[in-house]
Amino acid sequence: MHHFMLANLLTEPVGVAHYMAVGAVLFVCGVLCMALKRNALGVLMGIELVLNGANLNFIAFGSRFLRGEGQGLGLDGPLMALFVIVLAAAEAAVALAIVLNFYNNYDSVDIDRADQLQG
Amino acid sequence: MGDGIYWPTFFFLLFSALACGFALAVVFSRNVVRMAFYLVMSLASTAGLFFLAGEDFVGAMQLMIYVGGTLVLLIFGVMLTSQKQFVEMKTPAGQWIVGLVTGCALVALLWMAAFETPQWQPISRAEAEAVAVQPTATPIGVALTNGRVDQLDQPDETLRGGMSSYLLPFEIVSVHLLVVLIGAAYLARAKRRSPSAAAPG
Amino acid sequence: MDSSWLPTLLALAWLTPLASFVFILFFGKHAGPHGRFAGTVATGAIVFSCVLSFVAMFGAWLPNNELPEAHHGDHAAGGDHDEHAEDGEHADEADHETFIRPAASPFLLASSGGDRGTISLVADTAEGEGDSAEHHIAPNGKPPAVYGVFYNLVTFGKLKLDISYYIDALTVTMFCVVTLIASCVHFYAIGYMHDELHEPYTDHEVTLTDGTHLVRKGRFYRFFQYLSLFCFSMLGIVIAGNLAMAFVFWELVGICSYFLIGFYIERHSASTAANKAFIVNRVGDFGMLIGMMALWSSLGTFAFGDTQNDQGEVTEPGMFSVLRTEENHYALAPTESMEVEGARVVGEGEEGESSHAGQWLLLIAGVGVFCGCVGKSAQFPLHVWLPDAMEGPTPVSALVHSATMVAAGVYLTGRVYPIFTPEALLVIAVIGCITLFVAATIAITALDIKRVLAYSTVSQLGYMMLALGIGGWSAGIFHLITHACFKGLLFMCSGSVIHAVHTNDMSYMGGLRKKMPITAYTMLVGCLAIIGAGIPTSMYGLSGYYSKDAIIEQAWSFAGANRGNPLLSILLIAPVIGAAITAFYMFRLWYMTFAGEPRDHHRYDHAHESPRVMTMPLVVLAVCAIAIGWSVPGTNLSITSLLEQAQPVGTTPGAEGVLAENLVVPAEQLSHVKAVKIPAGWAAFSAAAFGVLLATIIYLWRMLNPAEIRDSFKPLYAFLWNKWYFDELYDLIFVKPTHWISGLIAKFDRGIIDGIIHGTAATAKAAASIVSNVGDRTLVDGTVNAFANRTWDFGLMLRRLQTGSLRTYVLAIAMGTWITYMLVSFIMVARGTG
Amino acid sequence: MAEFLANYLPAWLAYMVAGAIHVGLIINLVAVGALVFIWLERKISGRIQDRLGPTRVGGKFGWLQTLADGLKLLTKEDLVPGGADKMLFRIAPYVSFCASIAAFLAIPFAGGDYPFIVQHVNTGVFFVLAVLGLEVFGVILAGYASASKWSLFGAMREAAQVVSYEVPLGLCAVVPVMLAGSLDLVVIGDVQQGWFTNWLIFHDPATFLIFWVYFTCATASVNRAPFDLAEAESELVAGFHTEYSGLRWSFFFMAEYGSMFSVSLLASILFLGGWNGPLPITEWLGLTAANGDIAWYIGQVLGVINVIGKAVAGVCVMMWIRWTLPRLRIDQVMATCLKYCTPLAAAFFLGAVAWQWSLPGRTFFGLLESPAELQSVSEGWSDATAAATDEDEPEASEDQTVSSEPSRKVAAAKLTGAAALQIASTNLQGGK
């Protein structure tokens, strides 16, 4: 690690790395949600968090404020982020439908009960 | 001005602290409705980060769609788990420990990767202040339908044709959304019992 | 319609039976009840072909190709001689001078020669009959013909295999004859094969091991399928423009005859007869292949006609043009390449002078091609298949023996006539002579009605070959055509009789004239035609009268020309005696069948006249048998004039042998002079009359008992009854030694080779059992099973990893990512790249 | 303002002071606005119901009545039901209130090169709609956290209703965006300069019609009668705020009135000319930047009065509707949205596009020439059309890439046309 970048915070701009750090936290929180929540809706929220963490990275890469003019991804960053948002919405719709079906079949949203595929 | 507080960094710290904190709250909350609330807060803070990065449009989009989407999540949470026994589903402590260790390791890894890459270091303050504010909706709109305004001065002629637009992905995503809507409606529709299964008489 | 239509018309006539064949092949079984309409389709196709052929003849050929105004092959012309006897030599000479070759036509290959149009034939008619050295007959040029290529199948260097056509008067005439006879046969077959429509069909001649008769499905449609293919193949030979194509259809005819003779495949006799016909034909075809190789290797072409470009210039000369060049006055002369090639083959002419290597090669080629014709036309010594071929249904016999298969041999001999050297012609003549005599004698004793006709066919084919061999090209071909009509008629009549009495044996027949008059009298017409009934030296007679007398005249002329070689006079004596024998056995047949008292009343009572669909073709053919030799009143249109027009290039003046130096083949015109015509005519007539008289004495008037005659000539009778022991001879020469050698080899095989092999096998087996028990079962199986068990255990272990729980998977993915990264970076650090 | 203050103060302090001033103004606006509107509503309902309304407190008009109510609410006990989720119960009103106030951050009150706005967001329309949508969040949280079935029902209804009405609302808002070529509310307001004929509501028949669709949807999205299903007092006692009392309750009300005010502001900016009066009085009076800062400031203040006046008028119309029409059933509410408003909005949007395509550069139902700002957008349209149909390359527009020239909005408006033009011509010339 070259220099710890929290050293001159508040006086210098942040970089892509800082955004990525936040994105990493969101991502890992999402993963933990998925891994630790027994509630299917909790898992869905974890997915949203994961996608959001990824989005943050896209935005960071695309931003001119973080990497200077003409350095970043340009419009690709926000466009990708937009697509992720839209697809996340679609994913949420389908996932909710699945959860509803699951609830209809099991009278529960505990995904630990969906283990018919175990070896 | 000068070497004083660089306000965008201040707000970055604020919003990132909110986003991370609420994300952690999501992980550690047991009540699904509270989880949803924290999630919205986290997402809204992220939207703030988007605004800070100069992407107003995506930020507004984030607010709009995630709020709408999470709202629905919330409703489902309330509806499906309003019975008491489902509100709290305990995860074994062992899994918590394993999960947290893994999560910490992963975060450490990602942070290391992020901060060790020279290209991702911050630019100087003067450089950042020189960046002009630009409208964000119009380029995105043009890029989705017609072409890339940020690539107008692309020196490589051969590359310019390839940077025409995101029209096709846009269309694909649109159709995808439609399909998903129909599919979700089909999946979630109320199953009616067939008349033959009904009791005679 | 100009003659450019000819190829189209004839190709259409040729391909229509193929279309019918294909249709029946795919849909025949379902065409109507039991495939009844297959017959209609096939008949319609052949009738359509017939119509097209006649359209080609009268619409495209005759208007474009002027016939010779007067000619000498015709008995009508012979009559003219008599009528104009007072006018003396002048008239005769004028007659000759007005013999004009056909007019030039821009579409014809033979249109280029300017002098050909005015060739006059100057023959020494006074005493020239025996002195061939003095005749001054100018050679004829190329006959008017259309040659072209439909489609080039393949080209291997110089060897081009084309679907081509060579159309001259002979082709068109043969098309008409073949399709006409085939049409009649088709109609006839619809009636004759009616039994096959019964489902199931019981074959009373096949007895199964349990004593019952074979019951099978009817094969009506299949019969017509074969007939169509047969007609297609025959027409293919006729239209063929090169020897290779002719050979292909030649073989197709062979396979069709195999199918048709073996139509009742369940009958042992039928299947063996089919095999026999096929194998014997292969023997002949082997010779033909040799001939073709000789021709192609030395000439480099198979084509009959010359290939022309758009300007009418000859680009690739055909076989005939190469061998008989215009500079050489169309005389047969081997080419230089032939000399070289012949020297290589024959091994002569190293010194270069007085080399006859080319002549030898030509002889080999000619005799080789003729070998094929021997097989197909059932000439001695390959005639043995034809009588056995009577196992096929009678319509097949009628078709095979009249217009198609056996005619193919004669036709091909006539087609490639320009390549035959005088020596080759002598071979042909001798073979024909032997054949006609042998077959005629066998026919005397035969009792099977169809066998009599079969041997008669062989005999008549011998006549044709003899005629061709002694220089009577038009006589031989003319006899082929007339014979096609009356032999078709005779076979169909016999079929009608068999249909009525359900037996082939004439000793069960007799007196059928009252029961089936149409059959009886049409058959009588056929008999009269075959013996050549007519008023001697006049122009009135049945068809056979013209053709057979022409042959005898030519034989007379030949004998006169070769007076120096008395042995060759057998070629005259044999046909005359043959004519007598022919008359005898034909009338023996007729009397035994139709005259006198019925011998088997049971069969006689059940006999009945055949249905109209069978008798109508008889009537049609009877009319043909009477009138086919006549010329159309008021015109000079007749078969003979057509044949005159198609006379092969350079064959009119006759020829002299090179290898056999004193051999003379006289010109055909020379046989029409009175000095030859009158004695020959009377000889033929008296021979025939004698034969008829003898038959009448023995079989009608019963003045002599046939059984007594049989007893008094017992060895001769046995010799004839056993067909000159030909089958036994072949059995002794070919079959027995083959069996003996095979037996030896088989013993060697079983005793020694099998022993070695069995020993080796036993050793290997013993070794294998050791390897199997010790190595395989224990070691290999043990290893494999151990692997399998470990895999199974490992699988059970892995199974526990699949918990089915989403959350575990997510955790595993996260941990996996982390561990992978760590591993990769560790490796990179270890390598010093990180 | 921060820049101005930075001349006299340290930067951080300048920003803080500026932020405090802005927030104070906004909160004042919302809070005072709520007071005024509650009083207004009481008076209007009274008039509509043929009575006087409040008269005692504060003189003849009772204008202090609301203030007195506010004081009463402040002193009331803050009750939390026993079964409630206490944290969410307490937070919920603030969520609603914050969302409502946050919408004002991006709403300009006067335009020009230095607009009166807290934060100039270049995706203003979108931002305002998005933030307004957040308000429902507090309502739902309140309904859930109250542990009361009335509250829960109200919250569910609110959620369904708001989520549905976002769609047609967005579609309606897109029409002015399309016509002005920008999501920036300042730009949208400025292109309607001049006479009232330049107002976008009068641009063409489709915009005229879609304004009413917008107003209906806006009414529904802020839970005003006849769409106030979330609090339907005849069915659900008081809906989501049944269990609330005191100041928390009043926050909900301030949020509701704030939202009413903000959607009305949005309507006035999007359709009704914003800070531009029906007649160009400021120009006639010379109250422009050309005549000095004072004149400019007066002009801007006139604009603020203008836009607030239009918004108040809109709020009054909402009140008028509330006291006139009966409440719809929930299924009728949903049918209105999904069966009528959404298709109508889509159809009118297409109509507006078609009109603009066929008559670029025309306004007031196509009768008049557009003002300069609208004209530039129209030029973009027609340039794009020309580029699509014509291969001749018009004069290169590279100098029109975004620069720092003062009339940024014009450049932004032109950007669409310029970029489209250039890219279209590039693609047409074989995709070099």
What do these coordinates show?
The complex is a heterotetramer of chains A (119), B (201), C (834) and D (432). Chain A has helices spanning 16-36, 40-62, 64-67, 76-106. Chain A has 119 residues and is an all-alpha fold. Chain A has a domain at 39-112. The model of chain B is unreliable at 197-201 (pLDDT under 50). Chain B is mainly α and 201 residues long. Helices cover 69% and strands 0% of the residues of chain B. Chain B has helices at 7-28, 32-52, 56-80, 84-87, 93-116, 125-130, 137-145, 157-162, 167-188. Chain C is mainly alpha-helical. Helix content of chain C is 64%, strand content 5%. Chain C has 29 helices and 8 strands. In chain C, the strands form 4 sheets. In chain C, strands 1-2 form a two-stranded antiparallel ribbon. Chain C is globular. With 432 residues, chain D is mainly alpha-helical. Chain D has helices at 2-6, 11-48, 65-75, 86-103, 124-145, 149-180, 185-190, 205-221, 233-236, 246-270, 281-285, 293-322, 330-358, 372-389, 408-428, and strands at 362-363, 368-369. In chain D, strand 1 and strand 2 form a beta hairpin. The model of chain D is unreliable at 388-414 and 427-432 (pLDDT under 50). At the A-B interface, helix 1, helix 2, helix 3 and helix 4 of A face helix 1, helix 2, helix 3, helix 5 and helix 6 of B.
Domains of chain D, number: 2
Oligomeric state of the chains? heterotetramer
Main β-sheet, spatial strand arrangement of chain D: 1-2
Unreliable residue stretches of chain D: 388-414, 427-432
Overall pLDDT of chain B: 76
Work out the helix count of chain B.
Answer: 9
Largest interface: pair, residues per side: A-B, 82 and 99 residues
Number of strands of chain B: 0
Cα distance, first to last residue of chain D? 47 Å
| Averaged pLDDT of chain D | 79
Structural class category of chain D: mainly alpha
Helix content of chain D: 55-70%
Helix segment tally of chain D: 15
